[in-house]
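Input record (Table S2, row 453):
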Amino acid sequence: TDAHLAAIEAARVLNAYVLETPEQARNMAKAADDRIAKGEAGPLEGLPLGIKDLFATKGVRTTACSKILDGFTPPYESTVTSQLWRDGAVLLGKLNNDEFAMGSSNETSCFGPVVNPWRRDGSDTKLVPGGSSGGSASAVAAGLCLGATATDTGGSIRQPAAFTGTVGIKPTYGRCSRWGIVAFASSLDQAGPIARTVRDSAILLRSMAGHDPKDTTSVDRAVPDYESAVGRSVKGMKIGIPKEYRIDGMPAEIEALWKQGADWLKAAGAELVEVSLPHTKYALPAYYIVAPAEASSNLARYDGVRYGARVNGRNITEMYENTRAQGFGAEVRRRIMIGTYVLSAGYYDAYYLRAQKVRTLIKRDFEDCFAQGVSAILTPATPSAAFGIGEKGGADPVEMYLNDIFTVTVNMAGLPGIAVPAGKDAQGLPLGLQLIGRPFDEETLFSLGEVIE
Ligand code: GLN
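Output record (glutamine complex):
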C-alpha cells in the first residue's frame, strides 16, 4: 500500500486519480495485516485497488466526474466495492472517468483528461487511455494500483484496457450488482475489473460478482472459481471469426493481430470457424439511440434538490435550468437531448422502438452462432491503437462514437467480453483482442484469454 501511494504521488501528471485516500488506505492495510497475523486472511487481503469514481463509496466523495455531483459524499457503499472490502482489499482512491461514463477517451471528465502512460516510439505526444474507464486503465498500466474497478456500457472496460496493454472483462449482464453504481444506461451497464493479467482479472471478478437482492437484474447463480479456469485446456473448442467485423479500411496491423490471435488459439488446439453476425452494422446506431434514451431518463434525478451542486435562480424552474446547464458537460447535454428526442411522442416508434427491435436481432445473431457449437468469438478490441489527446471527436462526435464499433454489440446482447493485450502497433503502442462468450460463461474467456496474453 505504501509503495502504491508513493507511486500515485509520483505520477500525478497522469491525472488517473481524482481523489487519493492515503489515510484510509493505511488503516485498511493495517487491518489487513492484523487479519493476516490472525490467520483470517480473505481472498484479496491487503491488495491495494483503485475504484472508478462511478462506484459509491461510503464517506468518500463520489462524483462520476461531473460538476453536478460536486461535493457528493454517499452515505452508502456500492455492492461491488463492499464485496471487495469484505474480501480484504484496500482502497487507494477514486479513479478518473468520462463524465457519467459517456465517452471513449476520458476527455469529458470535469477533472480533465487522463494521460495514457504509453507513448509512441520517439514521440512526446500525450495519448488518451481510452474511456470511459480511462483512470482505471491508466492507473493499472502505470502500477498505481494492483487492479481497478471499471464499468462498461458500450466498451468502457475493454477499449481502455486495449489502449493501455491491460486486461479488462465485462461480465454477462446481471453477473455483478449495479446497486450503488451511478447509472448511465441501466440495461447495458455492467461492472468488471481492469487488471494486469488474465489471472488477476479472474481473481477480482470472483469477488465483484454475485447475486444482490438490491439489484433486481442481478442473477442468482453461483459464482465459479474463475481463477481455476486460467490455464485450463482450450483443445477442441470452436472459436468463431465473424466476417462482419472485417470492416472497410481496417488497418493492416489490426487485421494481422487478429490473424495472430487466431493462430495462437489454433496452436493451443482450438478450431477456428468463420461465422456470420449479419446485424453487426446496425449495432452502433442502435446503441447510440438506446444508451442516450436510458441516460436521459437516469439523469433526470440531478435536479439540484437532492444531490450535489445547485445553482439558484429566481424560481424553481430557473434553478433546475441553471443547475443542469452548468452542472452537465457538453457530451452529457448532447446525450440528454438525443435521448429525450428519441423517446418523445411521434419519434418513439421510429427511433427507440426500432432500436430495441434491432437489439433483439443482434442478440439472435449471437444465439444462432452459439447454437452451432461455437464456444467464443474472436474479434479485434478496437479499430486503432490509442490516439492523441484532443485528436478526435472535436468537431464531429460521431468520430469518437466509431471507437466502439467492436464493443457495443456485446452490451446490446448482454454477453461477456474480455479484452486482452495481444501485440503492438508499428509505433510500439499496445493493441488488444476481444473474446466474446456465451451468457455466464466467463470461464471460457479466461481460459482463451490466457492463451493470447
Ligand atoms: N463510449 C461509449 C459511450 O460513450 C461507451 C461508454 C461506456 O461503456 N460507459 O457511450
